[in-house]
Amino acid sequence: MTIPIVTLKPGKEQSLNRFHPWIFSGAINFVSQELEEGELVRVVSSKQDFLAIGHYQIGSIAIRIVSFEDVAIDAAFWEKKLLEALNLRRALGLLGSEQTNVFRLIHGEGDGMPGLIVDFYNGTAVYQAHSVGMYHIRYELAELLKKLMGDSLIAVYDKSDKTLPFKADIQPENGYLLGSSGPGVVKEYGLSYHVDWIEGQKTGFFIDQRENRKLVEHFSKGRDVLNMFCYSGGFSFFAMQGGAKLVHSVDSSAKAIELTNQNVALNFKDDQRHEAFAADAFDFIRDMKNCYDLIILDPPAFAKHRGALRPALQAYKRLNAKAFEQIRSGGVLFTFSCSQVVSKDQF
Question: Which of these three, 19, 51, 67, is where a domain ends?
């Protein structure tokens, strides 16, 4: 199949020669025909030398590269990509682990599949497309995952309705691409928790905090712990596993508190060390007095765009300053930001 050709401006091929996976709109000089969102395109230099193949999209990031080799982008190509990702997870001891059965199966650019996130929840893969190109091939990739994973994959659930570019002229609806399964129980380092990929945040859980939860366990022995913005309580029951004297979980959402209590009960039934509170975080931390010697601050994003950066930085400063004031002498503070526009130095 002949695919459209995109010609770059002179000198704009340098980033591709370093295998950067994006092409910005300002680098494009000419396109061979009118392009549709999500369409595959061949990228060539101003001298017409082949550079890459990628998915076209509307916006400043105009092309997401899927291959730096001049190959056919067919089922065999995607199967090879998926197999490489699966083999990496096997090498890391994740696939087939009895202690941890929740992890990121496909991580966008990191696995050479820009615009695609797939998280694995004990047999269910949650597919989340961040580009139209990856959304168009969702059924094909779901079938290939099933082919490669066999009985270890029960279902594939598409949760792309909130992640596709707003300029894309499509109306996605979440639903199962393959099989079906309800909210389930997963394990992380041997501890269990409920996950609801249909109604829950992100793909269902904050998988990226796994090693930080384990680190909290290491620091918790003999401490009084406060888990602010607890969501489903992951930090809380890892602190209990680590030997905390008491653990308090706080979230403004009553639904989150209910989920936290369910997860604590899964691992520590009738354990009196834990108590959960539905309360505003700023009010709670302002009113507490020298009660805790380990505090976890893991708030939702305070800034989702650059226009919100200034007030977000002020909010982070107020929250952390209050924790510094209220924590016991010698205490430990775990503090996080998931605001993309807040840099490490600013935080």
Answer: 67
